[in-house]
Amino acid sequence: MKNLLRRLLPTKAAACRRGATAVEFALIFPVFLAFVLGIIEVGRAMWIKGSLQYAVEETTRYAMVNTSASDTTLEAYATSKLMGVGVSSTGVTFQATQDTSGGTTYVTITGSYVFQGLTSFLPYFDAVTLNAKSRAPLNS
Q1: What is the 8-class DSSP label of residue 139?
Q2: What is the separation of C-alpha 95 from the centre of its chain, rounded to a whole number of angstroms?
Q3: Cα separation, 81 vs 83, whole angstroms
Q4: CA nearest 67: which of 102, 112, 100, 111?
Q5: What pTM value is reported for the model?
Q6: How many CA atoms lie within 13 A of 112 on its CB side?
Q7: pLDDT 10s per residue in the chain (140 long)?
Q8: How far is CA 39 from the centre of its chain?
Q9: 41: number of Cβ within 10 Å
Q10: Residue 98: which H helix or E strand, with range?
Q11: Alpha-carbon distance 56 to 136, whole Å?
Q12: Is 40 exposed, middle or buried (0-12, 13-18, 19+ CB in 10 A)?
């Protein structure tokens, strides 16, 4: 095999290593880029999920203090809390419901957001629904 290689390639061409770094970079860079963009996307999704949970929990606290607030008022309050942390309310839906169990009235606030990834070549972040929920008793 070694003799065949010597006959086919001149000695200087067989020993030449120029361009090897460029080839290695071309092979590794797409994988590295996918890792970095994946980390950014997962971090962004976790930040939005945390912000959604924060808005829902703050709204249940508000409902506990303001027991006469309507469901529409609570949904608007949740949206305002989400805007306060820098997340756009586009694509976010909040729902407030009240139910009675064992003589105690509870308020449940749920929020959902369809997360769209910034990069289109990562198929796992096509459309992921992020949900948040909080339930608390209303003061009587």
Answers
A1: P
A2: 20
A3: 5
A4: 100
A5: 0.75
A6: 6
A7: 656 656 665 655 556 677 788 888 999 999 998 889 889 888 988 999 999 999 999 999 999 999 888 999 999 999 988 886 667 778 899 999 998 988 888 999 999 998 887 776 656 657 888 999 999 998 76
A8: 10
A9: 18
A10: strand 92-101
A11: 11
A12: middle
**Domain spans of the chain, in order of start:** 2-137
User: CA 15, 21, 27: angle at the middle one, nearest 5?
Assistant: 120
CA-to-CA distance for 84 and 79, rounded, in angstroms?
Answer: 9
Supply 17's token pair: 């290593």
Q: Are strands 92-101 and 104-115 parallel, antiparallel or unpaired?
A: antiparallel
Which single residue is written with the structure tokens 């948040």?
132
Q: Using only C-alpha atoms, what is the Rg of the chain? A: 28
Q: What residues contact residue 115 under an 8 Å CB cut-off, 6+ apart?
A: 45, 48, 125, 127, 128, 129, 130
Backbone phi and psi for residue 44, each to the nearest 5 degrees, phi listed first: -65, -40
How many residues can be counted in the chain?
140
